[in-house]
Here is the input.
Amino acid sequence: MALIVQKYGGTSVGSVERIEAVAEKIAKFRDRGDDVVIVVSAMSGETNRLTAMALEMMEQPTPREMDVLLSTGEQVTIALLCMALEKRGYGARSFTGGQVRILTDEAHTKARIREIDSTRIMAQLDQQNIVVVAGFQGVNENGCITTLGRGGSDTTAVALAAALDADECQIYTDVKGVYTTDPRVVEDAHLLSSITFEEMLELASLGAKVLQIRSVEFAGKYKVPLRVLSTFEEGPGTLISLEEDTAMEDPSIAGIAFERDEAKLTVTGVPDVPGIAYNVIGPVSDAGIEVDVIVQNVAADGTNDITFTVKCAEGDRTKAILDSVSNSLEAREVILDKKICKVSLVGVGMRSHAGIASKMFKALAEENINIQIITTSEIKISVVIEEKYLELAVRALHSAFELGDPDAENSIN
Amino acid sequence: MALIVQKYGGTSVGSVERIEAVAEKIAKFRDRGDDVVIVVSAMSGETNRLTAMALEMMEQPTPREMDVLLSTGEQVTIALLCMALEKRGYGARSFTGGQVRILTDEAHTKARIREIDSTRIMAQLDQQNIVVVAGFQGVNENGCITTLGRGGSDTTAVALAAALDADECQIYTDVKGVYTTDPRVVEDAHLLSSITFEEMLELASLGAKVLQIRSVEFAGKYKVPLRVLSTFEEGPGTLISLEEDTAMEDPSIAGIAFERDEAKLTVTGVPDVPGIAYNVIGPVSDAGIEVDVIVQNVAADGTNDITFTVKCAEGDRTKAILDSVSNSLEAREVILDKKICKVSLVGVGMRSHAGIASKMFKALAEENINIQIITTSEIKISVVIEEKYLELAVRALHSAFELGDPDAENSIN
Here is the structure.
């Protein structure tokens, strides 16, 4: 008998019928004797409906009241899911974030969890009840309702699993798990049976959006075994494991992530003096623009080129900011290129295995794809290339690293 | 500077635009320096939408979860109304029933308020904020969400006014106040500027449904001055006053109520022995059927006729019950008549003024309306007559008691 926390997202509970299907799924775990704590999101569409009303009311809705408003979405789901379970003869009790007492900080609409009181939940489990908790929400020290930001239900589930010392935290979603890359780009992308937290973090932040990144950090920090799996199809999903599997001889690459939605800015000919990178990036980040890849290189003439990427939508604004400071920077030129993309190899094996980078560059060269920027970290190598080569590059890498070969499955997981 | 509790019902807050209009109304009170605490219902249609989902899920939804579900309706409104106030530059803070701590008993879906903690509300008023409270909901000793049943928002408002020792509790609705009778039946029915609690109770229970009757009882018990007025039209509405106005010389009739939806049952020829009324009414009330008017009269032959009324929809079921026991009752006959109605005169003045009853009977006799049953109480006289005479009777009485004459307004209020 295990204690399992399960989280079902908005699509999984998008209608009365789907909530009934989720109840059936939960019942199976209960039947085999597991204690189950369920975390649910708002029914799909509901958060948008509520947000639209708030925006109709005011351009920038009061954050405190936004949280009061949005938190009703999950509250509806917990009630309906409990009814679906009760109808099937299972004892079930719903709890809002405030009722559990999921204590957060004061930051309305993007609060962070501080502490979870497990008393009420444990008491219900002791009485053989299924506990259904509203995701995405908590309460601050003053008893005001807070929300964790979009996707926060994943974080609720992981935090609950940590607080309850659960055996596993299962995140049910509309995909079967984590793939070696996007199956829409590479046909033989295959499902990973396991992946490390660090790999998952890199894959998530690089665009393979299956789990909210905060929840993965949280799970890693509190060592909660996390599993991503499909609500709609049977299957073991992907386990996000606490440690890399040391038994594996050749743990090279877990997957390939990519980001289409970036723009590249290059500031050329700035003097090679201390503080110049700050002078370039400072005004951009002061304007609230998030900067992704940054590279700097000294040119032969002793001046510097600084290149970085931002979200494509911020490209023009960033260019305008840099143009306005280019005189004081003594820059030769500010160049904006929106036709780029980023492709990244991710894998903990990279740490100990030389030759991954050269194999990557060779595969791209063979397709005549020019690399504009290279950045590396412990478990990731990213390249920025011309946007039109994205699919070609991902497929070439997927094949070069034999990610698509089912026979290779055991060696890469 | 006064402390005013205002309640706005579902129609008053039925859309973003209407909530904005309510915010404008509230702002006027705030501008003149009043402290205001607002109680709101769910946006019209919302409770029905939520109920429909629950009924789709299960025939008899779990009461505990029904309350979790339905309480979201008011929670949406409090958030939106606070936004509308903040947008206009007024500080506003929303509270759910649980956040105020409106403590109720355990009876889910029909809970009763036990106690209200006014600390948080008073603290917000001290900070010059408008407080917006979700009506209809509370929380029990265990922290579970409870609801007060449909129309419970009126009760929330009155209970809050009592707990806060408010100067007035204003119930905004879609009618201008309490009329001498239904304006759809009598054209010159006029708005009462005031009415006593007792009169209001009789009028409400007799069919002039403006306020939820529980809230009127509550207001009477805790001596909360209660005013009914329109959200959509300016006007002073009707004050439900704590005491009858002793300055008035001729306080006769406050209004005329009527009930179309009744059926009359007569059990004839039962022996005139102790316990016979119980033997007739007992089986009916055991079946959960509410009995309204009851009269009993000894006939010349020493047997008894017992007559009573029930809701029309319960007529056939009641007849069947009586038929099944008529042998043991030794009854001659059980007669069901669905074509009846009840008309009632209500007024505290009745207590001290003779002649009201005879004036009533005379007015009906002049229209050739036969009276089938008469019952009286301290402040009310009801007659049961043939249903087709309802409008005629109400108009005749309205005119006989000069309720329609605007010049008579001062004398009757």
The first strand of chain B starts at residue 3 and ends at 8. The interface with chain A takes residues 16, 19-20, 50, 53-54, 56-58, 61-62, 64-66, 68-69, 71-72, 75-76, 78-80, 82-84, 86-87, 92-94, 96, 98-99, 120, 143-145 of chain B (CB under 8 Å). Confidence is low (pLDDT under 50) at residues 408-413 of chain B. Residues 255-412 of chain B form a domain with the VC0802-like fold (CATH 3.30.2130.10).
